[in-house]
Each structure stands twice: as structure tokens, then as C-alpha cells.
Amino acid sequence: MGRKDNALESHGGGKAQRSPMLCGTNYPLSIAFIVVNEFCERFSYYGMKAVLTLYFMSYLHWDKDLSTAVYHAFSSLCYFTPILGALIADSWLGKFKTIIYLSIVYVIGHVVKSVGAIPDVGDSTVHIVLSMLGLVLIAFGTGGIKPCVSAFGGDQFEEEHTEERRKFFSIFYMSINAGSVLSTVITPILRGDVECFGGDCYALAFGVPAALMIIALVVFIAGSGLYKKSPPEGNILLDVCKCIGFAIKNRWRSSKYDPKREHWLDWAEEKYSKRLIHEIKMVLRVLVLYIPLPMFWALFDQQGSRWTLQATRMNMDFGEFILKPDQMQMLNALLILVFVPIFDMGVYPLIGLCRINFTPLKKMATGMVFAALAFVAATLVEVNVTKTVVEPPIASQSLLQILNLADGDVTVNFPIPGGDLFPDPIKSYEDPLEYERLQLNGVNQSITATVTQNMKTVNCPLFFTEKKAYSLILHNDVDGIKCNLVEDNIVKSDSGDAYLRFISAHQEFLNITVGSEHFDVRTGYVVTPNKTVERGEYRDVKCKAGQVVHSIDLGLLDFGASYTVILKNQVQGEIIPHKMEDVHANNIHIAWQIPQYMLMTAGEVMFSITGLEFSYSQAPANMKSVLQAGWLLTVAFGNVIVLIVAEGAGLEQWMEFILFAGLLVAVSIIFSIMAHFYTYVDSAEEEKKFRDDVKYEEKDDLKKNQTENPYPDTECRTTKM
User: Fold this and answer.
1) Are residues 599 and 581 in the same domain?
2) Which segments within 65-177 are labelled E, that is strand?
3) Which of 491, 507, 531 is the last residue of a domain?
4) 169-219: per-residue pLDDT in tens?
5) DSSP character at residue 226
6) Helix orientation angle between 624-648 and 64-80, rounded to the nearest 10 degrees
7) Model pTM?
8) Among 397, 593, 675, 707, which residue has the least CB neighbours within 10 Å?
9) Euclidean distance between the first and final Cα of the chain, in Å?
10) CA neighbor of 648 nearest in space, from 65, 54, 70, 76
11) HEC profile for 511-556?
12) Are residue 577 and residue 630 in the same domain, yes or no?
């Protein structure tokens, strides 16, 4: 994942002990500890984050909008806190101690988060408090060490080993992606395939990342004696902020226009050096280009929220294995490892052969367009996915389907305006087609339906509540047709499991075990509660009637479907199940998400990696940390955008995807216009030019002083006389 750390290659000086080298190379042994630490830390972060959205929905029982909002609020905080980490490291503790102390905070956050996922620890309020506290601590931990670890790795190299340092950052980047890939594969398995406390094992899914973070801390401390540790050198970011603040205040207080001060930053010359002011001007030109960038991250980071939620409503069967919805995120990291060499050694050289000047800013704008196309692809998938979803009823509406378990056809009518919902006769044991919408006069309404069979009519008093779905079960009784209105579940399972319930027309009490779930089925057409059952083939389900055990065939219980199974009377000593599909199974395969991931990853390669290289090349040597802070803030603000839209827009999911795609296209156009007027600089040349200008100004001042006073010491000598 191209922006997993977004750490620019800054490194400090300072005299310190020299680390032993690896096997006759110019690579310090200490970097092995740093790379392993980064792998374990990234495993812990992305492993925890992979299951976070489903944890909010399945364990804390939040709706998808609140889950998405909290997910992106957490992601945003993770990219605001690096500024705090940089301030602590540069101004107070140094990189080594900052990594140690904030890693301890990080570990505590993971442990608190894991404890909050144990059902036996308090009630739902306690779980929410522990979960939020854990996430805040994790955000401060991961964000605080983010600007320190890569720079600390760079510090281990001698100044002359620039090529080795460059390769180290490539290895460092690979460790990030390796940790991400493995964690997004493993933690969903721990969540879904391991059962604990009677359900998905979120405590284990969070506990293993916690253990990896403890290992990361132990490994980093183990290398303590080998590190070259640079002391705090003062925070350049703080100096930049002070200089800008002084210039603004000084200009505001001055009532006169000074033609010698062409730029507003020149008003800081009374207090700050011309070199610092010149370098801030260079940085500000890049930071202005950063203004449109958060919109890209607003789309990119939805892979872990909206796209994961989309995956829960898709078919995840690959024949040999069943993919979990939160595992699909690994595709981004895998594609990054494939796309980076393809673009570097194939795509970009081919574009160069076509004599197209594909500048870094053009690459970034193109990356934005690819991300927008990814959301167009996600929209097409979403439109087809929603065809299997029952749209919930709105205010003053209820949903109704009819299950005719009687011996013959029936007709049902409701004596209200628009009450002719079922104009055709309903056949016996006919699968319901779709839910019909029943318009109510208010929040609740009592309606007496008329049910006719063989010219005989029965009145059924029914009570409906808005925004709920119902099944009207009709069956024969000694007095004719009997009516039973039951509330239905129309919401698909977050994990892709199937919902199952039973109705028994059998004469005995039945005990049925399906997978790990047990159903007590009473006689008299009583409906059992809906329970989630893992998707799979259930050909030999044990059904116990008294001392006799029967075997029934339920067939495939598919992803996301809701089933009602009617158990008919015995036929030659057997119980015959009749399965009805209340909510359609997920019939869109999750492989259809691959195009949107490919487009998004292509956009990431062109946008994120190029953006880092561009920022690095355009910044003065001692200002790269300032641009790193600015870059990380674009990620933070991108997540804020998603948070606002998720909570405030109230759009259908496919419309929200289109909105994001349209906004990013508009932003890419604005960015392209800004990029057209940007002039690329060579930071080394700018440095040389600045030094030459300063020398010229000093000579000019000296010449001017000599002209005004050719005998500078005369006044002094006269005084002595």
C-alpha cells in the first residue's frame, strides 16, 4: 500500500557509536531490528483495522453509517498524531525514546481494545468505552512513531552510504506491505473461523495484533546497543510555524507598504534568517498543491469501510476456499507489489518512448482519475448487489409477504386504499416472490385481512408497525384457515452468513442442529427465531423427534440469504423439509471487486508514490519533515471528508459512490490547473542560487558602506583625538 507510512527519507546527523555491519556490507546490523519492528507493527495495525468495521456492526451493533464514520475518525486521528510524535522526538526525547514510549502506549491500546472485545467483561457500555479508549491510544501510538521509525533507520547509515540508505527504504517499504498482506489474511480467519464466547472471536482477532506489537517493541529494544542515536536537534516544523506567525503579525501591524518586501514572508526578516524564509517559500509552493489532495484519500481509505461492507453482500465462494469479506483488502497490498515494478519498468518507459512529458504532477492527476474510475466500477457492482437486498420500509410503511401452508390456493385482500397487494391466488407452498409495501395511516395500524379459500372467507385481525417486515403464515385448522403474523429479518448478515428459521407442520416437538446452532421447533406452526448459520451445504441435518433421529436435507444455505424451512408431516416415517428463500442470496461474485481494486491501486501507484518523490525533490534538505507532516495531514483530512459524508449525506450507497467519484474528477481538474502553473525546481540548484544571492547581497552592502564612508575608522580616530 503506497501510503502506508508515507515517510520521507529524512535523517539526522550527530556523532554516535557505529553499528556493526551485516556480513561485510555497508548495511548496519541495527537496521535488521528496525525492519522486523516495522513488519510486526504494520501487522498489528492493519490486522486490527481489517476487522474493525465488522466489529462495529456485528459486536457493537452499530449501523453501517456510524461504523463507517468511527472507522474514518480513527483513521483520521492516526494521521493527525504524527505531528505530535515529530514534536516530541525533535524537541524533547529524540527518535529512539519517542519510539519506545509511544510503542508502550500503542501496546496498552491494543490490550484495552482486545479486552473490550470479550463479552464477559461488562455490558455494552463498557465494551464501547474500552473499544474507543483502545482506539485513541492506538492512534496516538501508531501516529506518534510514524515519522520517527523510518527516519531513525536512515540515521543508522554513514553519510557516504547514500545508495545503501536508498535501498534500505525500499526494504522498509516492502516490510510494510508484507505485514499488511499477512495481517489482512490472518486476522479475518481468526475472527471468523475460530469461535469463542459463542460467536466470532474478535478478542483473538485483536489479541494477535496486540501480541505482534509487543514483539515489535521487544525486538526494537533488543537492538538498543547497536543503534546510532541522534540527540534532539530542535523542531524545524515548530520554527516554520513561528516564522509564518511572526511574518503575518508583523505585516498586520505595519501600516506602510514596503516595496523591498515582495513576499509577505519577507516581513519576518527582522527576526528570522533569509535562508529560513527562502526555504519556507519553497515549501509553501508545494503545500498549496496539497490542498486538493485529501479528496483522493477520501476515496482510497474506503477500501476498509464501504468496500468491505459491499463485500459482505457478495458471493465469496472460490471453490477451493471461501474468502472472508475483510480479507479482500489484502488485494491492494498484493497489487502494489506487482504494479510498482510494472509501472517503473514498463508503463513509464513506454510513455517516454511516445515522447509524452509525463511529469510527476501529471502522474498524480492521472492517479486521481483512476481512483474516480475505481468508484465508478464500485458503483456498477453496488447497483447489482442491491438487487439481492430487500429495501427497508420507510416511515408509515410495512413490508409483507404471505406463506400459504394451507392445502389449497387462497386469496388475500386488505380493506384499505391500495389494499389489493396480492391480486392473484397464492398457491400452496409457493415461494413468495417479493415483499409488498403496505401503506399505514401512522406509526401503527390494525388491519383486518380477508382470506378466501374454496369460497369460504376468514377475517384475520392483524397489527402492523412502520419500518418493519412481516410474514403472514396461513395454514389449515379444524375451523378452517388460521392466520399467524410474524416479524421478519430482512437485513443481510455482516459476515455473509445465512439466516435460518423453521416452521413445523409435524405433530411432535423437534430438536434440530444445523452447524453450531440448535433449534427447538414446536408444533402448531410456531416460527423459531432467526439464527445465523455459516454458509455451506447441509445434506445430513439431524432432526430429533422424541427418541427417533431423522436426517433432513437442507441443501445449500447460501451467502446472505434468509430461509424459512417448513417441516411437513411424515411421509413413510420421514420428515420432508420445504425451503423458502425470504431474502435472496448474494449472487454477485466478489471477484467483481477486483477491477475496482486494480484501478484504485494503479491510481495509488501514480498518486501516492509519485507524490512522495515529488515532495522530496521539491523541498530543501532540512524541510522534508515539514512536507511529511503536510502529506500526512492530507490523509487525515481525507478521512474527515468521509466521516462528514457518511453521517450527513444520507444517500444510498451507489449514489454516495458516484458523488465521491464526481468530486474527485472535479478536484483532479482543479489540481491539473494548479499544476500547469507550477514551476519545478531543483532543490540543490536553489540552494546554490540562494548562497550566491546572499554573497552578492553581502558584497553589495559592503560596497555601499565603503562608498558612504571611505574611511570607516576616521570617526573613531577623531573621537580619540
Assistant:
1) no
2) none
3) 491
4) 767 777 888 888 899 999 999 988 888 887 789 999 999 999 999 999 999
5) G
6) 170
7) 0.79
8) 707
9) 78
10) 65
11) EEEECCEEEEECCCCCECCCEEECCEEECCEEEEECCEEEEECCEE
12) no
